[in-house]
Structure formats: C-alpha cells, structure tokens
Amino acid sequence: MEKQYEHCVQKLDHKIEELTAETENPIVLAHQLIELLLGCMAELKSYVMENGFKNSDEEIYFFKHIKPVFLSKLIYYNAIYKIETKKPYGNGKAIKKYIGNELAKLKRFFDNNLDFYKYYRTNNTYLDEKYFIRGKYDIKLSLDTYYFETDHNFTTSHDYKVAKIIANDLIQVYLEDQLNYSSKKKTSEKSPLNWTASKTALTELIYALYAQGVFDNGNADIKIIAKTFETTFNIDLGDFYHTFMELKARKINRTKFIDSLRDALLKRMDEQQED
Fold first, then answer.
1. Cα–Cα distance between 208 and 223 in angstroms, integer?
2. What is d(CA 120, CA 37) in angstroms, rounded to the nearest whole number?
3. Cβ 168 vs Cβ 109: under 8 Å
4. Which top-level group of life is the source organism from (predicted)?
5. Confidence band for 54, pLDDT divided at 50, 70 and 90
6. 182 CB contacts (<8 Å, ≥6 apart)?
7. Alpha-carbon distance 135 to 226, whole Å?
8. CB distance 114 to 122 below 8 Å
9. Which residue pairs from 3-12 have beta carbons closer than 8 angstroms and sit at least 24 positions apart in sequence?
10. What percent of the chain lies above the pLDDT cut of 70?
11. CA angle 15, 18, 23 (to 5 degrees)
C-alpha cells in the first residue's frame, strides 16, 4: 500500500511542477491546483471505500501518514488562493501588515493545538487508535467542529489536524518569502529607465494596453497597470483617469501618441530595409 501511494504522490508532485512552470499568476495557479487536488482526493476516497484496510495498523498509517500528504496540499493551495485574492495592492506597510496578520493566524492555530503538535512531531503513537481510527474519536481530546460535519467513512478525528500542520509549515514559508520579497523590492535600486515623453502619452499607451487585455489575460486592474508603469519608468501619473477623460474629449486624433508610435516603427523598418 505504501509504495502505491508514494507513486501517486510522485505523479501528483510532477503535475504540480508542470503547472507551476507553465503558470506565472499565483491565483490562476492555485485555482488549477485546487481542481487537480479535489480530483485526487475523490480518487483516494473511492479507493479506500472499495478496498478498505487489512487491519488497524494499516488504517492508522493511512490516516496519519498518507491522506494528510494529499490533504495538506489542498489546504495549502486553497490558503494561497485566499491570501493572494485578498492581498492589498502595493509593496509597503499595507503588505507587511497583511502578511503579519496571516502569520498571526498560523501562530494562533499552533497555540491552540500545542499538545497535538508535540504528540505528532515527537512521533508518539500511544493515542493513535483514538486519533487515526475511524469512529474512535474521544470528545475529551479537543475535537474541531469540522470533524462532526465530515464523512466519517473517510475521516478520523485528527487526520485533518496533521494535514493542517504540514500545510501551515508551507504557508509560513510562503508568507515569509513574500515578506522578504516585499522588503527587497522596497529597498531595491530605482529603475534605470525614465519616461521622458508626456504623462498624457503614457496614459494613452496604458489604456490601449488595458483595452487590448494584454496583462493577465485581460484581468489586470487598470490601477495596477498604471502603478507598475509609474514604478518602472520613475514617473507619477497623478490623476491618470482624469487624463484619460481628456483624451476621450479630444475632437481630433484621440490616439495621437499611439499613431506616432506606429509611424515611428514603420519609418525605422523602412530605413533598415534600405540599409
């Protein structure tokens, strides 16, 4: 049984690596992996329902060491999806505070489950029959309400807690990496490029790219696009929405800058052909 599940985990990890390499957006990636892992969990449950376990030792091993590996990945990517979708825009104090709050949630879970953390991480086994045998729960062992709402044919009183411990370790690493990245980004050198055309010209370009949907498959917010251009080219666009309204109100040639880009590019192409 152990070798069979190890093979399944290896296949799953390989698929996760493939999707991670193909997808840059963490929200899109998390969504894809959640769907993948939900399918894996359904297959895992179906196998257990059909085949059962030879004895209590095999059942304990499954719910203590196998199911939590799969479930922890689902918990992890679901957490990343929530973290990324709720994360405030920017890279300064707001991000630092947000990540700090998320890390505090992990700390609260640790504090609230300290006894079980000690039991699990010191490889104790004396309560395994209560923790990891289906239907053998003990109400005195601080059960989560979650347990009473689950399918007890595929859940023990503490397999979710093991998965949560594994996932929280990964989430902590992710959050700390985000915190370090934010700090490095804040202290990094200024971009070497400076926008030297007009703010109106850049606003026209930004809205053209936004209208074409070239960022994040058309899902990027105009404010994020504008802020990225401001940071990259060391310029403050001010009220860029008001500038766009002025562009819309033009009576003649509302795309003056973009038309000039086209003319300049065609001219350069023609000149290189002549050379």
1. 14
2. 24
3. yes
4. Bacteria
5. very high
6. 91, 92, 95, 96, 99
7. 56
8. no
9. 5/66, 5/69, 8/40, 8/44, 9/69, 9/70, 12/36, 12/37, 12/40, 12/70, 12/73
10. 93
11. 125
Q: What is the pLDDT of residue 42?
A: 93
Q: Which two tokens mark 66?
A: 């196998």
8 Å CB contact between 77 and 33: yes
DSSP for residue 83: H
Kindly list the distances between the CA atom of residue 68 and the CA atoms of 40, 44, 74, 76, in Å, as whole numbers in the listed order: 12, 11, 10, 11
Separation of alpha carbons 123 and 119, rounded Å? 6
Task: For residue 236, count other CB atoms closer than 10 A to its CB.
Answer: 7
The answer to whether 44 and 70 have CB atoms below 8 angstroms apart is yes
pLDDT at residue 242 in the model? 80
Mean pLDDT of 33-54: 92
> Looking up tokens 């009473």, which residue turns up?
148
Closest by alpha carbon to 258, among 192, 197, 215, 214? 197
Q: Where are the domains of the chain?
A: 2-187, 199-274
How far is residue 235's CA from residue 228's CA, in Å, rounded to a whole number?
A: 10
User: What pLDDT is attached to residue 39?
Assistant: 92
Averaged confidence pLDDT in the chain: 87
Q: Can you spell out the DSSP letters for 194-230?
A: ---S-HHHHHHHHHHHHHHT-SGGGT--HHHHHHHHH
Q: What is the pLDDT of residues 122-131, one digit of tens each?
A: 999 999 999 9
Please report where in the chains the tokens 């290896």 appear, as a residue.
10
